Amino acid sequence: MLDQIHLLAAVTVLGVLEQAYFFLQVIYARRAFGISPPQISGPPEFERIFRAQVNSSEYFPIFLALLWQAGLFFHQGLAAALGLLYLYARYCYFMGYKASSSARLAPIYFSSGVLWILTAASALGILHFFLSHYVGLNVLRLLTA
Amino acid sequence: MLDQIHLLAAVTVLGVLEQAYFFLQVIYARRAFGISPPQISGPPEFERIFRAQVNSSEYFPIFLALLWQAGLFFHQGLAAALGLLYLYARYCYFMGYKASSSARLAPIYFSSGVLWILTAASALGILHFFLSHYVGLNVLRLLTA
Amino acid sequence: MLDQIHLLAAVTVLGVLEQAYFFLQVIYARRAFGISPPQISGPPEFERIFRAQVNSSEYFPIFLALLWQAGLFFHQGLAAALGLLYLYARYCYFMGYKASSSARLAPIYFSSGVLWILTAASALGILHFFLSHYVGLNVLRLLTA
Q: What digits encode the pLDDT tens for the residues A82-112?
């Protein structure tokens, strides 16, 4: 069973490490700008880093959900590759947002695009499973026949 | 293995699409009220939409965790049906909160009720597995004997 | 298959119950301090409880991701035990933060430590799987030979 998920597991752990890096960035920013918890407002430089972390945290479960559905129902290797691309786009988003609000836009659009591809792969894979499981229709076999 | 999770996977992807819809609503609200990131405060109309999205994001991993445990350890079809009910209640919550703070209450209570049922199903299913795995006690067989 | 994940599932459901407890604490605090949604600012006593819940929510998907990778690829029993330790540390963190900002520090460091151990266990387990799957190198057998 593990050989069907080991690439997904590896990308998941990498994703966790990235989230840890984002959390550390907020801790450093809190120290640099003297903003102690539970405070969350401050100069725009701080708020951008803070919001970049919050946004990345909100998307993390969505990313994992899509990564695993796409990996299980479509193709593990493709899902893992898209997952790496997403994590790279998230890193660019975080660094961009840290610099300026507008610099977050290009990478966030890119990361959204990757998530939509993962969504499409998940939906197609699950649809294919439904068709072959309930209707007995194997689309792939039809296409290659 | 996939036939034990395909309904859960389908509800998971639907849940992701709902989260995407909520994120888009916040983006539209930011434009409509002229509130640029990283700002998160504004008129109550904006803050209600923003908070509705944040609350839905915080509950999303909890929802997925329960959906999958209930589906794996209790009954996949029932868990998926409850999952659809939860996603519908979340939609009503979001639309209610958008209209007024009080209009969020009925659907949030309903969605909490669905989550408690999923929790009970998960707990019962896992307990049943523990009993039959460690004590050799098959409660279902006892009841039907 | 379920006997490889039943301990992880049990800890997951316990984690959900803990999150539910934290959400209820925020609801009680909102009532006690008269802070109605969508408002999220108020006296420090309220903001500490609110931030304790938000922080716990942000870490919940990270915790689950590590719990399951460590349990699947390293050792289920050890991962579940570390999971219980994490949930206990989170409870202490919440209660500490409720009392004062500084009282959150010791348990948050402890809970981070547990997450790093889970990360190491996940990474080692996945690495071990990669080595034996792709290189045909079984490190455990080498060590015990």
A: 999 999 999 999 999 999 999 999 999 999 9
Contact A40 C51 (CB under 8 A): yes
Q: Which residue has the tokens 């049990």?
A: C10
Residues in A 18-77 with any Cβ partner in B closer than 8 A: 44, 47-48, 50-51, 58, 61-62, 65-66, 69, 72-73
Residue-wise pLDDT for A27-68, tens only, equals 999 999 999 999 999 999 999 999 999 999 999 999 999 999
Map residue C41 onto helix, strand or coil.
coil
Q: How many domains does chain C have?
A: 1
Q: Which two tokens stand for residue A134?
A: 């309930």
CATH code at position B118 = 1.20.120.550
Whole-angstrom Cα distance, residue C128 to residue C137? 8
> Are residues C16 and B66, on separate chains, in Cβ contact within 8 Å?
yes
Q: Is this complex scored with an ipTM above 0.85? A: yes
Cβ-count burial of B98 within 10 angstroms (0-12 exposed, 13-18 middle, 19+ buried)? middle
